[in-house]
Amino acid sequence: MHMNTPPRSTIRLTRRGRIALIATGAVVAGTAVAVPLLSLESEGEKKPTTLVIPEGRRAGQVYDAVDKALAQPPGTAKKSLAKVHLKLPNEAEGNPEGYLFPATYPLERNGRKTTPEALLSFMVDTANQKFKGAPVAAGAQRNAMNVYQAVTIASIIQAEAATKADMGKVARVIFNRLERGMPLQMDSTINYALNRSTLRTTSADLRIDSPYNSYQRMGLPPTPIDNPGEEAMRAAISPPPGDWLYFVTVKPGDTRFTNSFEEHRRNVAEFNKNQQKSAKAR
C-alpha cells in the first residue's frame, strides 16, 4: 500500500459515532457472534451467567463489562493484563485491542465463577481462532498486508459502517485512500484518541497530536480502534471493487459513497443541515 503524503482536503471524510455496552445474561440478537459450546444462563436465575460483548466495543469498555459482570472493583480486569500471558501478535505489543472478540462468554465453568484473566484469555483465544485461519491470512496477503493490519482496518470498518451492507464499501474507501497516498480522515480514529464517541468533530479535534489522528497522520493507526466482528473482518480482506474515496451518513439509512469531492461536499452540507434540524427539534 502506497503512503506518499498528498495535499489534504479540508472536508471531513466521515462523521459517525456510537457507543454502547451490554453486559447481561441474554444474548443480544444481531450483535454478538455466538461461540460454540458456551453455556447460557438458566431461566429464572437473577444473576447473569454469561457476558455478551457486541461488535465494535473498545478494550476499555470490555474491561468495565468484565469487572461489572464478575462484581470486581473497577480497574480489576485491566490490571489483570499484567498477570496473564495473552496470545497476541507481536505487532500488538501486549495491547489486546482488536482481539477481545465479540461473542457470548460464560461467567461460570464447572460451577465456579471465572476470573478476569480467564475471560480475557478466552476472548483472545477466540479471536485467534477466527483470525488465524487460512482465509483471513490469504485475504490479508492478497491485499498486501498482514493479519494485524487487517484487524486494524476491520476495526475502522466496524466503527464507520452505518449498516452491515455498507461494510464492504467502507473497506474499499480505506484501500483506495491508502493506495492513493491519501490520509484516511476517519472521525472514528479521532474519537478513539479522545476516548469518546460523537458525530460532532470540531476543527480543534482534527489538530490533536495523536498517532490516531488520521487527518494528520498517514496510513493506518498504530492499533485497532475497537474489537471487530467477523463481518467487518470479511469486508477488510475482501472489499468489493469500486472507486469511492468519500462517504458520509447523511441520515439514518442513507450513507452516500462517491469518488467526487464536489459531490461529497454537497452530501456533507446535507448532513449538516439534517443535524441542525435535529438539534432544533430537541
Summarize this entry quickly.
With 282 residues, this protein is mostly helical. The protein has helices at 59-69, 76-79, 116-131, 134-142, 147-160, 167-179, 187-193, 230-237, 261-281; strands spanning 50-52, 104-106, 108-109, 112-113, 246-251, 254-258. Helix 4 (134-142) runs parallel beside helix 8 and helix 5 crosses helix 8.
Describe the model.
By secondary structure, the chain is mainly α. Helix content is 37%, strand content 7%. The strands form three sheets. Strands 1-2 form a two-stranded antiparallel ribbon. Strands 3-4 form a two-stranded antiparallel ribbon. 40% of the residues are buried.
- Helical proportion, percent range: 25-40%
Q: Helix and strand string, N-terminal first?
A: EHHEEEHHHHHHEEH
> Stretches where pLDDT falls below 50 for ≥5 residues?
1-12, 15-42
DSSP helix count? 9
Radius of gyration: 19 Å
Give the distance, in angstroms, between the N- and C-terminal Cα atoms.
45 Å
Largest sheet: 2 strands, antiparallel
Quantity of strands, as a count: 6
Task: Please state the overall shape, judged from the principal axes of the Cα atoms.
Answer: globular
Output the strand order for the largest sheet.
1-2
Which structural class is indicated by helix and strand composition?
Answer: mainly alpha
β-strand percent reads 5-15%
* Integer average pLDDT: 86
